[in-house]
Write a structure and sequence with these properties.
Shape: globular
Structural class: alpha/beta
Strand order of the largest sheet: 2-1-3-11-4-12
Number of helices: 12
Radius of gyration: 19 Å
Strand content: 15-25%
Number of strands: 12
Order of helices and strands: HHEHEHEHEEEHEHEHEEEHHHEH
Largest sheet: 6 strands, mixed
């Protein structure tokens, strides 16, 4: 473990590694969908290594095929920690308000804690706005995604009269691709005409902005942003929370909160992978930040 992170942990009111290990036999981190499973595991391996050293027990990474796999893991007690999107957190909270607690939120390079749902298409499609998407195929990511479904499904129909999220009305077809990476690849390959994903909206378009699914896709060599054009942007959405299972021992929760909170200062490269791009790290957050998302989820989806 890098010295800075070890010192940060030592400075907290944490019991010894031995005491923590007596309370749990392993620690399980769930990784929300957004890119292929192996890339997700690779991005989080450094965090798993730090966790193993901090807690003194084996750390296991889980990258389910969809968002619901992480949600159900948290609800069922088979996942201990995850970085959820705001809508996935709302889904978890609505099913069991006592299952998890939000502890940290990602901080953008300008100090803000929000991001956007970004609508995009291929440059050579001639589509430059939602006005050009009439009669075209539109792709969402995952039904439990905030930026990949919940927010655009509410805000896009407000763009102008006549837009609905039903296939065969404004759009020729509305489809779910399965996740952010799948949407980006589907648009890039011409399988769908346009779709939505997430980005901080800061920095350069050609880089996929500073952080988000587009940035991860650029880093992975999946897409050249010069081939893409932005066609829509949502209002600011609060970044999703790092959550911990409430039933975990208090010292384990303190250790993991301190570890993730100090990750950027200790290992910026690791923080880059975990946070899907450039970041200033994480800061404390509470449920109150997500009340509006919980209500939107309840209204739109019901749970």
């Amino acid at each position: 473990m890098k010295k800075t992170l070890a010192l940060a942990l030592a400075a907290t009111t944490i019991l010894s590694t031995g005491a923590i290990a007596q309370d749990i036999t392993e620690f399980r981190i769930g990784i929300l969908g957004g890119e292929n499973a192996q890339d997700r595991m690779n991005s989080y391996q450094c965090l798993a290594d730090y966790t193993t050293e901090a807690l003194g027990v084996e750390t296991k990474l889980f990258a389910p095929a969809d968002y619901n796999g992480v949600i159900q893991g948290l609800l069922g007690g088979t996942i201990d920690m995850a970085w959820l999107g705001a809508s996935a957190y709302a889904a978890t909270y609505l099913q069991d308000p006592e299952a998890v607690e939000p502890v940290l939120i990602k901080v953008n390079v300008d100090g803000s804690i929000g991001y956007h749902s970004i609508g995009f298409a291929r440059v050579d499609s001639g589509i430059t706005s939602l006005d050009d998407m009439e009669g075209k195929v539109f792709g969402f990511g995952d039904p439990n995604s905030t930026s990949g479904y919940l927010i655009p499904s509410i805000e896009i129909p407000q763009y102008k009269d006549g837009i609905t999220m039903d296939s065969g009305e404004y759009f020729a077809e509305v489809t779910f691709t399965g996740g952010h990476e799948q949407t980006i690849v589907a648009v890039s390959n011409g399988d769908i005409d346009g779709g939505v994903t997430w980005a901080d909206g800061q920095g350069n378009w050609e880089d996929g902005y500073n952080s988000g699914a587009l940035r991860k896709a650029v880093d992975a060599g999946l897409v050249d942003m010069n081939d893409m054009v932005q066609i829509w942007q949502s209002a600011v959405i609060p970044e999703g929370p790092i959550v911990l299972r409430r039933a975990l021992p208090a010292d384990v929760k303190e250790t993991m909160t301190a570890l993730v909170d100090g990750l950027f200062e200790a290992d910026p490269d690791c923080a880059y992978g975990v946070a899907a791009g450039d970041t200033l790290g994480f800061q404390p957050v509470t449920h109150e930040t997500y009340i509006s998302i919980v209500e939107a989820r309840k209204s739109k989806i019901g749970g």
